[in-house]
Backbone:
């Protein structure tokens, strides 16, 4: 009888400890999310193409990683469009016609090397805005956010222009 009670008590203590460890790991996870550093980046020449409501646009910029470490871009968001994706345009020669064919594909993640820059420019990398909620007219401003692994997100503003010049 005594022995049984001892085991029950032991089981209860073990269960409590497991619970405490679980709660502690939740709290620590929340703390690390908040303590994630802001990425040390510079965005320059940030602009976007004009487009009609319901259409698509693209945001371009030069992204400079001022950190020694590589940064990993894992996505983008914006209230301006239904979908926002990091895209890359590639050029391929059509094997039948020999014509230059452009393809766009989504990049699930993109490494920005430490102390290096990436050019998001027409015909290459871009932040794709798909199904715009409103038209994007010249000189309009569009807010968007870049998401990085192990870093806080960064919000920036693009000016709608015909080109990056
Ligand atoms: Cu695209």
Residues:
């Amino acid at each position: 009888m005594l022995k049984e009670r001892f085991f029950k008590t032991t089981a209860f203590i073990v269960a409590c400890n497991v619970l405490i460890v679980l709660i502690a790991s939740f709290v620590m996870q929340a703390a690390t999310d908040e303590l994630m550093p802001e990425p040390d980046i510079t965005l320059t020449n940030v602009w976007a193409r004009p487009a009609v409501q319901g259409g698509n646009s693209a945001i371009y910029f030069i992204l400079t990683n001022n950190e020694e470490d590589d940064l990993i871009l894992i996505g983008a968001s914006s209230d301006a469009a239904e979908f926002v994706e990091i895209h890359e345009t590639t050029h391929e020669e059509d094997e039948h016609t020999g014509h230059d064919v452009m393809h766009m594909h989504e990049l699930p993640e993109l490494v920005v090397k430490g102390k290096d820059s990436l050019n998001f420019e027409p015909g290459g990398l871009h932040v794709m805005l798909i199904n715009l909620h409103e038209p994007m007219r010249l000189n309009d401003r569009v807010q968007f956010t870049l998401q990085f692994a192990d870093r806080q997100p960064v919000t920036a503003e693009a000016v709608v222009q015909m080109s990056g010049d």
Q: What stands out?
A: Helices lie at 2-35. The first helix runs from residue 2 to 35. Strands lie at 41-48, 57-65, 71-77, 81-93, 100-106, 110-112, 116-120, 125-132, 141-148, 154-160. Residues 58, 87, 104, 126, 128 surround copper (II) ion (CB under 6 Å).
